[in-house]
Amino acid sequence: MQNFDVIVLGAGINGCGIAENLARSGKQVLLLDKGGVGRGTSSKSSRLIHGGLRYLETGQLHLVYESLHDRQRLVQQYPELVAYKRFYLPIYQSSPRPAWLIRVGLWMYDLLSGSRSAGKSRKERIDQFLIQFPAFSPEGLKSVLSYVDAKTHDSELTRRVADDFQERGGTVIVHCDVKHIAWDEQGFQVSSSAGEFSTLTFVNATGPWLDEVNEKYNFPAKFHIRKVSGIHLIFDGLVVPELMFMQTREKRIFFIIPEPERDQTLIGTTEREEDCLMDQVQAQEADIQYLLEQVNAYLKAGHYLKREDVRDIYIGVRPLVRKKGKASDVSREYKLDLHKKGNSKLLHVFGGKLTTYQSLAEKVFIKLYQ
Length: 370
Hints:
Elements: E1 2-9, H1 13-24, E2 29-32, E3 48-49, H2 61-77, E4 83-92, H3 99-113, E5 122-124, H4 126-132, E6 141-151, H5 154-167, E7 171-173, E8 178-184, E9 187-192, E10 195-204, H6 210-217, E11 225-236, E12 243-247, E13 253-259, E14 264-268, E15 272-274, H7 285-296, E16 310-321, E17 335-341, E18 344-350, H8 357-369
Parallel strand pairs: 1-2, 1-10, 2-7, 4-12, 10-18
Antiparallel strand pairs: 3-6, 4-6, 5-6, 8-9, 9-10, 11-14, 11-15, 11-16, 12-13, 13-14, 17-18
Helix pairs in contact: 1-5, 1-8
């Protein structure tokens, strides 16, 4: 039986980030996953590194501040994978939020960012916008604002963090079926298809699978998750030349994300609460039609996107800490849930975003060792 200081279950961005941070601190760490590195939610996001502009509306200032500063760290640490991009936000007569309110939000966003290199928000000329974005309808267009966030490729970033972990001496085992976990005051004994392992410290970073893992291994937990799925539609070609932050009349948001390096455009996302097992989650036709209707509401008739234009669809599931309220209003804050038996420690990671994995990993280390 191989012994490790820490075993981390789940090789998504949070699991990889936690493992890398622990290895950097001198711990011998084993990272396990039933699939591959970044094969779950961490490869099915909007591929954005962002502060969460809409979180200002629900008063999540701490999360926005943390996200914006993690965004800056990632741009500096992985410049070949994370880059600042300008997002355009057209405001129509039908838009649920007035331009002045959004400008106040963008001013706060700039202030919380504290980064001069990122660039500031600004008001754009409508005539120039319509030239640059010829597919968009001029009818009812009242104002155009823009701001700066960052773009990445989620699965490539996750694999890079896993590579950094291995360069620090960490061990990654994927396609690993964990058959049994025994836990007592002396630690954890893990039986798997890849062998037998032991540790005093076990971190459950399985994201939307977390509740299922806790039930399977009879782990105690203070929280549960809400599984909120989001789909993205992929279209050939560039529907727009720059990234766009769009509003719906119901005050929800979606992004139009051009990827010129792949000659494709992503449009997403949706928010549907799932009550099935994670491996049974599937994209719903109603969500596909919803996104098509929302984007077409802004386009000229000759530029409408049709169902047959959708080249591919992918669906990811956000593991939100369970609270009452609409899925779109539930906080994206994460929770660290620590349990002890004697000298052994079990830590669950509830929630977490692609952008904030580094801050989360640092807090995991503090929770476990300080």
